[in-house]
Q: What sequence folds into this?
């Protein structure tokens, strides 16, 4: 993992605190979030001028009763069967939003794969490895963090699998 110390900024999120503590190389991107936006991820891509296949959304699913994090490009959607297979499960459904918020410590639209209240099994779509860096939520609507997919996998204990379709 590339090491690049960052000075902790006031008002950091658990995600940026975790990145700073790990000495990871990352860049924070802030933008004005529009609460009326129909897609948080597409809004982030447009606001940052980043192709939608480089901006990844963090989704929480339930695989055989266990909450699991899926990180997929905003340009596509999560393939629940592929996610279940990636973690050796049989059936996956989207998690109850309240359970996802309670378990991760983040609000919907701002759930980050980093710095979660309870560390969940994490699977990143394999397409993330095709980019030098990707953007994921930094733990708040209107705040993204850019880092390498390899660093993200290392920091979350995540694995890579083909779990997205479309996009």
A:
């Amino acid at each position: 993992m590339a090491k690049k110390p960052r000075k902790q900024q006031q008002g950091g999120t658990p995600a940026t605190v975790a990145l700073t503590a790990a000495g990871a190389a990352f860049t924070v991107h802030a933008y004005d979030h529009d609460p009326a936006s129909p897609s948080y991820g597409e809004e982030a891509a447009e606001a940052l001028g980043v192709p939608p296949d480089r901006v990844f959304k963090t989704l929480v699913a339930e695989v055989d009763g266990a909450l699991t994090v899926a990180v997929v490009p905003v340009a596509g959607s999560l393939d629940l069967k592929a996610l279940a297979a990636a973690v050796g499960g049989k059936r996956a459904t989207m998690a109850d939003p309240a359970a996802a918020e309670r378990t991760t410590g983040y609000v919907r639209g701002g759930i980050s794969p980093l710095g979660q209240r309870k560390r969940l099994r994490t699977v990143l779509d394999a397409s993330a490895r095709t980019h030098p860096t990707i953007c994921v939520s930094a733990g708040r609507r209107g705040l993204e963090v850019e880092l390498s997919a390899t660093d993200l996998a290392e920091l979350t204990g995540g694995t890579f699998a083909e779990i997205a379709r479309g996009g």
In short: The two ends are 28 Å apart (CA to CA). The longest strand covers residues 56-63.
